[in-house]
Structures are given as C-alpha cells and as structure tokens.
Specification:
The complex is a heterodimer of chains A (about 180) and B (about 300). With about 180 residues, chain A is α/β, with parallel strands linked by helices. Chain A is built from five helices and seven strands, in the order αααββαβαββββ. Chain A has two domains: about 80 residues, GMP Synthetase, Chain A, domain 3; about 45 residues, no CATH class. A four-stranded mixed beta sheet of chain A has the order 4-7-6-5. In chain A, strands 1-2-3 form a three-stranded mixed beta sheet. The termini of chain A are far apart. Chain B has one domain: Ferritin, core subunit, four-helix bundle (Ferritin), CATH 1.20.1260.10. Chain B is about 55% helix and about 0% strand. Chain B contains ten helices and no strands. Classes of the chains: A alpha/beta (about 180), B mainly alpha (about 300).
Chain lengths: ~180, ~300
Amino acid sequence: MVGQAAGLSASFPTEQERAFAIAAEVTDPEMPMLTLQDLGVLRDVECAENAVVVTITPTYSGCPAMATMRDDLVHRLHDHGYDQVEVRVSLSPAWSSDWITPRGREALADHGLSAPGPAPQHDGPVGLSLLPTRRPLICPRCGVAEVELTSEFGTTACKALYRCTSCLEPFEHVKEI
Amino acid sequence: MVEPVDHESVYDSLLGGDDSQWAFGTDFEDPLAGVDTTVPDGVDHHDLAIYCLMLADDALVMSHRLSQWCSNAPDLEEDIALANIALDLLGQSRLLLARAAAANLSVVPAMPHGSPVPPEDALAFFRTDREFLNVRLVEAENGDFGQTMARLLVFSTWRLAIFQRLAASRDTVLAAVAVKGVKEMTYHRDYAGRWFMTLARGTEESRRRVVAGLQAVWPLQAELFETHSVELSVTEAGVGVDPATVSAEVQVLLEQVLSMSDVERPDIGALARVRGENGRDGLHTEAFSLMLAEMQVVARAHPSGSW
C-alpha cells in the first residue's frame, strides 16, 4: 500500500506527481546543495501501482556518482512505500550544464560555487581554442569581477578551478558543457 | 554514565547503518543499465562488438597511462587535470566495453563459474595483450610531461574528429557515447594544445622537451588513419567511422598548433607493422605488456572477487 504518508498523497493530484516530488528531493552526492532535479540529472519518473521507474542522465561519462545517485533514489522511494523501484540510465540527449535549474544556480552561488554560463553550441566541426577560456565571472565570495583561471579541471569532472585576485580566495566554477 | 563506544569499526558509526552513502556505493553497476542495446538492422553483431572494443581499448589504455601521472605531475593542478581526463576516458571505455558485450557476448573472456565479475571488467582485466585492439600510440610509455602533452594532443585531436562523425551512427548507443565524448574531449584537446604551445614558447628547456616528445610519438600517428577491415565493415553498415576519412582534418588542426608553437612537423617515418599487423590486429609493443601486467594483476589474482 502506497498511502503510508497520507498527508503527502493528499497534496499531489496524481501518484506520479507524488513519486516525482520524492525523487526530486534526492541530492547530488558530490554537490549536496543541489537536488538531482536542480542538476538536471533527473529526467523522468513513471509510476504504476507501487512500482516506479526513474530515468536519469549522467553528467560526465566517467561520473563516479552515478551508482550513489541510483542507490539514493531507490532508498528514498523505498522509504516512501514504493516497493519496486527501477532506475534507468538515458544517454541521449547528453547532459548539458544548461539543464541546471535557476534554483540550482542560486544554490551553487549560496555555497560559494560559480554557476555555468551558456553551454557552447557547435554547428559543424568543434574549433580548437589555444587561448585560455575567458568567462565573465564574479567571485562568489566578495562579488568582484577580478578572477583568474587556475585550471580547467577541478575536484570533480564538472568543475574548473578559479582564484579571486581581489580577496585571493580560490573558488570552483561549474563548467559549461 | 558514559555511553559505551563501539570501537569495532569506525565506519559503522559514520555510516549509521546506511552504506549507500559510503564512497559512491559499495559496488559498480552496469553502465548501460536500462539502455536499449538492440543492434540496428543489417549490422554484423560481431563486427560491432569488435569495433566497440577498438574504441574502448584506445580510451582504456590512454586512461591508464594518464592515471600513472597521479601524484607525479609537475604541480597539483596538472595532477588533477590529468586525472580528470583519465576519468572521462575511463567512463567512455566502460560504456564501450559494456556495449561490446551487449552486441556479442562471445567477445567476453570466460570467467570461473559463479564469478561476479561483470563483462566490462572481464574485458578490461582478463584479456591478454594480443586480444587488445588499441592503437599503439596510447600504449607507449608516458615519457616526461612534454611527451605526454604531445601524445594527448595527437590522440584527442584524432579521437574528437572520429567521435564528431560517430555522433551520426545508426547505433544509438555509439551515437550517444560519441555526443557525450565530443563535449568532454573538446576540453582535453584544448588543454593539450595550450600546454604544447606554452611549453614550445616557454624556456629553451621546455621547448627542447616538448619537441623531443613530439618526435617520440610521431612514428605512432600514421597508424591512427589506417583502416582495419572491421572499421570498413561497420562504416559501410552506417554505425562506425573509417579513420582514414579524418586524416586531413586532424593534420590541419595539428598544423595549427605546430605553427602557433613555431615547431616544424616532424619528418620521421611510421613505426612499421609486424608481419602485416598493428595495434588494431592485437599486435603491440613491449611497453604494453608491462603496463597491462600492472593494470591487471590484482583482478587476475581474484577472478571471483567482488569489488
């Protein structure tokens, strides 16, 4: 029986919306200020009886957090009475940093991370870029625009390293992809 | 009264009975779980599997070589960068190995009865050197940082050109892996190109090293554009890319980096085939056997191990 949390059921017109709301609360294991919905990884939730099928899209091919995301979704939905939970991986369309929601971007900024700008669009061959990437960023700590790129690769696959030349603090920028 | 403290395992108290939060779960999952792996009509299953192994092995071996820089790079930022690039390639490799197994399970080495080793791991850790189909460029020793950048530049320029075309594959899994890979490898190629130029235009010593590095890897680049019969077959079936077709584009891009770096294109012949075979036929150099032995030793010691 699904209606364990009767109050929760009452606030959602359909079972699908309830299941989606539960899945949408699961957070990213590496950036726990973001939910999987904020990150754009949660693509779809389908519901039939007490079985749920959740579809997620990996951020990077080698993202090691996928197994944890999957486990966390299964656990959370189990806790809310869904006995059968299946997590499907959808590879296409490929994840884009454009899928990070406005709420997700605010959450990143609140936690000292810089949100990505628009993802590059390629019509035809991808051009080679031999000059350092220029991004109009502001320091998430002190708010000034005097920043420098330390490295295009950071502590996780999705981040670049920056440094504020005013307050001298390092910070991370979620890369455009 | 002081509450008794359980000193049995520090992890138990950290986990609070829920191990799903621990270090990305306790096991690996099939990277293609829930993905439709039906082979398109008119495509030979075995050829598709072999082609996926070729692309997977290029990424796996390159990834392993790059991971050998971990804790050895010139500074922390480059250490992290090389590990990130290795991780992207490992991710591509996992998807491609799983795709190979799904296309034709007979390419997967037989494991002891009841072994929990999944097909992708069996392919990575239980094939011999002769069964690996990577190009020889990726297996050579890293050399110094300059040589590593020279190789990464050649490799990522070539693979990015292949993957941009592979995005149109009739095989939806290969197409999806390619679209994703293009986004990732755009960063890899820019990284290698910038470092190549920086080193070439840096000090006398950095220039000497990166030029020597380019010369060291140059004999291995001709092989990248030679077409294997399986590559031809999958290209004709609309699921693969004939590497000969990216040659002109790759040379133009490399020339861009070389001219910006004021480095002459090396005039060095290609590493010869051996009895008509090269990397795509499973013919490799000595460095590969040593690398593979180290990469596989733990998994081979525990063929029924669960990781």
